[in-house]
Design goal:
Layout lengths: L15 H18 L26 E6 L5 E3 L2 E3 L4 H11 L7 E6 L5 H14 L4 E3 L7
Helix pairs in contact: 2-3
Length: 139
C-alpha cells in the first residue's frame, strides 16, 4: 500500500461575512450609546455693565420704557401705542438734529415687545443708531 501525498495543498479561506456582521453590531452599539453635544440649545449668560458713564450727546433722543410698557420720550410721558405714532414723535423731536442717536432706557421688567416697538419706530423714523442704557451692578 502506497500512500500518496497530495499534489496540491488546500489553501485556508477567510470568511469575511461574520467579520462584517460583528463590525456592524459594534457600530450600531456605539451609535446608540454615544451622546452628542447639543449646539442648538441656547445658553445665555446676561452680562453686567461696569463701564464709565458716557458723556451726554447733543444729538440724542431718549426713550424710556417702564415695567408696564409705557413710553417717555425726552423725559416727557407720551400716551402712544404702536410704532407709527412713536416714530412720528421721534421724527418731530429729531428734526433739528443731525443724525440723532436713539437711547433706549428700558426697565428690567419691561415687556420685550415694548422695546422692539421702540426699535421699530426708530427704524421707521430713519434713525439707524440705537443704543441701550444699563445700570452698574451693585456689589
Amino acid at each position: 500500500m502506497r500512500l500518496r501525498t497530495r499534489a496540491y495543498r488546500e489553501e485556508p479561506e477567510i470568511n469575511f461575512i461574520p467579520l462584517i456582521d460583528v463590525l456592524l453590531v459594534i457600530l450600531i452599539f456605539l451609535m446608540v450609546t454615544t451622546t452628542y453635544s447639543r449646539y442648538a440649545e441656547l445658553q445665555i449668560n446676561l452680562p453686567t455693565a461696569e463701564a464709565e458713564r458716557q458723556p451726554e450727546r447733543i444729538d440724542q433722543i431718549d426713550v424710556a420704557v417702564d415695567a408696564q410698557g409705557n413710553y417717555s420720550v425726552n423725559k416727557k410721558v407720551v400716551a402712544l401705542s404702536g410704532a407709527a405714532p412713536l416714530s412720528q414723535e421721534m421724527r418731530r423731536l429729531g428734526a433739528s438734529m443731525k443724525d440723532p442717536v436713539v437711547v433706549i432706557s428700558a426697565d428690567a421688567r419691561a415687556p420685550h415687545q415694548s422695546v422692539i416697538t421702540v426699535m421699530e419706530a426708530a427704524s421707521m423714523a430713519g434713525y439707524g443708531k440705537i443704543t441701550f442704557t444699563t445700570q452698574a451692578a451693585t456689589k
